[in-house]
Amino acid sequence: MFLAGILVLTTSCTQNDSEGIGGGKGNLTLLLTDAPFPSTLVDETIVTIDKIEIRSTTAATATTTTDSQYTVLYEGEGKSFNLLDLQNGVTEELANVDLEAGSYDLIRMHVVKAEVVLKDGTSYDLKIPSGSTSGIKITITPELLVESGVESTILLDFDVSKSFIVQGNPKTPAGVKGFLFKPVLRAVCQQFTGVIAGKVSENPTTPVANATVEILRADTVYTSAQTDATGAYSLVGLPALTFKLVCSKDGYNAVTVNDVIVKTKETTIVDITMGKTSTTTTTTSTTTTNP
User: Fold this and answer.
1) Where among 142, 160, 191 does a domain terminate?
2) Stated pTM of the model
3) How buried is residue 70: exposed, middle or buried, by Cβ count under 10 Å (0-12/13-18/19+)?
């Protein structure tokens, strides 16, 4: 899936004391990450961001919304990111700022350009819905609490598979008629999240690359990843819940793993053995504490 496009915001969610932060302020870092897009035809998926703001919960009680209710985290020359470079837990820093202590409930992100480039060089510039005016609004769940002298991390998950909608038939270049950009994002405080990771293989010496790994809640895809050349995958920024995992690839039997438990600040390892069509599959699952 296209970006399970994780824009990562690192803010005072990690309880680490930090010297040098001004009195009454905590430190906030913004990172960007992604999940895969279901098309082998796409070479790049680029978003350009020129402004990111955050709203305090005090401002959220106001009857009308004004710019003064937001604190600017970044504003300036547009920063462009190829989301396909940011998969399997890879992140990119958007900003690192000191922020007034308090609670925050909403991020507003200004996307000024979105572009999809196919491997044959065809480029599509996409219309931005509200991204260059009022901005894309992302609720922080649960609310971010910034404490004086403490560093925090927020993971902003930009789900590419849901945000970039293919028009036409994505199986051939001639069949692609364009893309719609309907951004779907989530923001979570990293101290409350865990990770699912592992490897997908046919046997101990044969990894399965480009397999799609999805996790679901109530049969709805929550986010996804795609295995790399070694068969490895990683799903980050997950709430402490129980998920169903589904691994699939053309030519292989799909594998379903029920009751995959995510624990806060821990990594749940789910290794999968995929059999080619008409063969059997196996899985193993363990949990390790994140460093």
Assistant:
1) 191
2) 0.75
3) buried
